[in-house]
Design brief:
alpha+beta, six-stranded antiparallel beta sheet, five-stranded mixed beta sheet, 14 helices, 19% strand, globular
Length: 341
């Protein structure tokens, strides 16, 4: 921990090392559901680092009102993040129900903006979160591991088979009277002073999934959940194809695929015939090339959106691999496009 303005200032000057952010500036607890916030310093990593979303909320219960049950979490918080963009990842699936405010979740190939009343299932993995500050972003979150989903489906959909339908990293959930009533029934738990029994929490998780799957409009989510039912380990390809453009380490990928690091490396090599590090670097560079040509984004933004450690690291690796700086590459691509007209 670090205390004092001088220490914080000195820490922020350490480029490429850890940054220190006052949690009271990062997250403002809900006035109605939470006590006054602490002034402690939370050690976070620089903006290019992926925040482990689940570890962040579990380790800071005074900012994220929560109940846990068999690896599942109910969360309610009002957390306007000062950064316009941040990157986060999670090793479990989770459902967002937005009470107020808005934010946009950017995945590699898509973006979805969530506003008051929006419900979405976010697959385990990473995304870039774009914040808006016109009003606090207040949310109820349900975090659930694959094991819970598998047990639930064995009890309620054991005979159903997945269709093989492709589904996006963020799946919109259709709201209806059943889901609205469910969320209204959840809110009082967060205002209660007594602990909620685990059996009740588990039943509420099951009620949530049953309410969602009862609606035929949520067939995408239905099929995704069915695809999880028989898995002993999550498909490496499904995780890598949707999460390569983020600054994640190998341990994070292993955790998202329910493997040890050694098992992940072995299985990855068998599939791709190369190491995870080499494959990821090539994918990130290709993604950066595409952004340089197709957008006018700043180099720093492209480095962030492609999963590099920082802008200097991106520029150095890019020149090593292409023989040109990112701006030179963009200029040459633009000149070629003009000559082709």
């Amino acid at each position: 921990m670090i205390g004092g303005k001088r220490d914080v200032k000195r820490a922020k000057k350490r480029k490429g090392r850890e940054g220190f952010i006052n949690l009271s500036e990062l997250c403002a607890p809900s006035r109605s559901l939470r006590p006054a916030f602490s002034t402690k310093i939370l050690v976070l990593y620089p903006p290019f680092f992926m925040i482990n979303y689940i570890e962040l909320v579990v380790n800071n219960p005074e900012y994220f009102k929560q109940f846990s049950c068999k690896g599942m979490l109910f969360l309610n918080y009002d957390c306007p993040v000062k950064a316009k963009k941040l990157a986060a990842w999670a090793e479990h699936n989770y459902i967002y129900y937005v009470l107020t405010g808005r934010k946009t979740l950017h995945t590699i190939d898509n973006s979805i903006t969530l506003t008051a009343g929006s419900i979405a299932f976010i697959k385990k993995g990473a995304c870039i979160v774009e914040q808006f500050f016109d009003e606090p972003f207040c949310i109820v979150v349900f975090i659930m591991p694959d094991t819970f989903i598998q047990t639930f489906l064995q009890d309620y959909a054991n005979d159903e088979k997945p269709s093989g339908m492709a589904t996006p990293p963020v799946i919109s959930i259709q709201d209806d009277i059943m889901t609205r009533n469910f969320y209204q029934s959840i809110i009082p738990y967060f205002a209660a002073t007594d602990n909620v029994p685990e059996d009740i929490l588990e039943l509420k998780f099951k009620e949530l999934l049953l309410s969602i799957l009862h609606n035929p409009a949520n067939e995408q989510l239905h099929q995704h959940l069915l695809s999880i039912k028989g898995q002993t380990a999550t498909s490496i390809q499904s995780i890598m194809d949707t999460n390569y453009a983020y600054n994640l380490n190998i341990e994070a990928y292993a955790r998202m695929t329910n493997r040890s690091v050694s098992s992940f490396k072995r299985d990855f090599q068998a599939i791709y015939k190369t190491t995870p590090g080499r494959w990821l670097m090539e994918k990130k560079l290709n993604h950066a090339r595409k952004l340089l040509v197709q957008t006018n984004d700043a180099v720093a933004s492209i480095a962030f959106d492609s999963g590099f450690e920082n802008t200097a690291h991106f520029s150095r690796i890019f020149k090593q691999k292409t023989g040109a700086t990112p701006l030179e590459y963009r200029k040459r691509a633009s000149e070629r496009a003009v000559m082709a007209i």
